[in-house]
């Protein structure tokens, strides 16, 4: 529709029709199946509000969506189509590894491909907007939503944010793809003590330097929408934070799209103690810049009285409605309200071989080999050793993680399926124990009533499982032990204080250790767990995250060496919970552990645990051996604006491999104390066995800059250290002056 026509449409709307465009309800109000998580209260919404509302949450599937849209258009005086928005976070029906796993791929190009594939599936399923990417930086794995983040580094997260938006929105202007809504603005991942929905409190330096860059990258990549967070930032709920939405997002970053609240977060302004009632909450959120009120009664009930009392101007409402109508128009909905929704297209697009192929590749690159003593991996089928696959995740289909809400669970390739493709009948499998045997945990989770009964075996079965696992182990030459968190132990509202494997799994593991057979441990989890004991007692350790639909194939490809592992952690793996929160890029202290003039006690460290994590950011093993040497750095900044860095890498092992070459700096003298090191660039390069190659980087001068206490960006002259290598801890060093 032409802009002038859209303007006329806006002018024709009555006040309640306008307000309707700013209200989002979930499928239950449209008699459609709805699977949104969260409180399902009807919130006093009237039928009139339903008929007028402008968008729908988490209704998916071509048939479903066509029916709701058709019905709505018939009732709608101006035939304004509904926008269908859904949580397509890391896959639609074909599910990829959870984002903390994608982070380990260090391969934004591949992730862009994965999100493009996802958008194709969701498009066919009728979705218009996805509530993704979730780009909240996280330093505390106690937070359950660590699962949805690509990790602890602002630079790496920004690369992924951009890739994800580009993937989702590929072809958007030509009527393809789906629009992206980046979330949760801002600093939702900094919830104090890792407790879900808790407050974030931080300096402007920290906010600008670490937490904002990934949102900014998503906005600069063209994300059409932004979702506010459920939390407060420095005492102000993000859903009513004028400074965040108007100054930072709109003025500083030039964002012109739609801002939506998170689920009921306008209403929750009351509970925060920030608004006195629903009317006040509506006013505060709209004035701050929130266009759409997701699943709360506030805009529907509160905007009209505010207008009548002269507390709100119609221009404010018009601006918000204009942005919503513009998005609908840009998606072509006035011409084709059903857009991609097509059962035919669903059949030819969803879970196809080519979609699975991408998922398998992402999954392979997300697995991180953390330990490989005596090169026990890869296993050689020709050795004819007998392999036992033992543990509760061995034949488990639930490898998708909590936020794969629309994923097809039946389509999952289990670890057993994958390994059997290599070993056939020679593989022996035993479950050994349940994932978790804590009835209280399931009963309190408030999600699926009666789940405990379904997933926890009787004591008798459990004891039989345990015995038969030990018998299987005793007959094997090598044990692959699969373990991990239950799906419900991570994800939204999945905060935990103890990040260990459930006791029953540890009991089984320790019994397996007693057999003295080599153990290859595979960990499934939504966050870095505390693996200190497990790592010590295993010969090999693979962090598999929730690896998605193709997880079983990917694991087998790695175990048997069809793929050389290349995953590198995008989040530190702590030694114990007491170290949390932690990140590799902490600020230099006046008393560093190793280089202080003080000796003994009075340095920055713990007296009962290491200062360092068990496995550091950027760490991960591959098969074979490489040598990094000849780090060189040519400072051409004055002339060209770039620092030229090069390093040589020799593959001296017997396997081709992918190296993630990482570049860090430390600013030695700055007006704001700087991190001991921080990532400024990286490349994933393929190096064949016997090959020796140079890897070059052109580092833009601006990558050396930082934010000051007022949030201003500056690049300061002075001395720097440059580190290039295999992880944040394993690097070669050079100096340069700016
Ligand atoms: C609440 C979650 O915080 C958000 O991430 C999600 O997009 C909405 N619910 C909608 O399901």
Short structural summary:
This protein is of the alpha/beta class. Helix content is 32%, strand content 18%. Among the domains are: 1-85 and 252-268 and 276-343, TIM Barrel (Alpha-Beta Barrel), CATH 3.20.20; 359-559, Rossmann fold; 626-737, Immunoglobulins (Immunoglobulin-like), CATH 2.60.40.10.
Q: Could you characterize the architecture of this molecule?
A:
This protein has 738 residues and is of the alpha/beta class. Among the domains are: 1-85 and 252-268 and 276-343, Glycoside hydrolase, family 3, N-terminal domain (TIM Barrel); 359-559, Glycoside hydrolase family 3 C-terminal domain (Rossmann fold); 626-737, Sandwich (Immunoglobulin-like), CATH 2.60.40.10. It has an eight-stranded parallel β-sheet with strand order 9-6-5-4-3-2-1-10. It has a six-stranded mixed β-sheet with strand order 11-16-15-14-12-13. β4 (129-130), α7 and β5 form a beta-alpha-beta unit. The longest helix has 17 residues, at 108-124. Bound molecules: 1-deoxynojirimycin (NOJ). 1-deoxynojirimycin binds next to loops.
**Spans of at least 5 consecutive residues with low confidence:** 34-41
The rounded distance between the terminal residues' Cα atoms is: 53 Å
Q: Quick one: biggest sheet? A: 8 strands, parallel
Overall geometric form? globular
The number of E-state strands comes to 25
Q: What's the architecture of one domain in CATH terms?
A: 3-Layer(aba) Sandwich
Give the neighbour order of strands across the main sheet.
9-6-5-4-3-2-1-10
What's the multimeric state? single chain
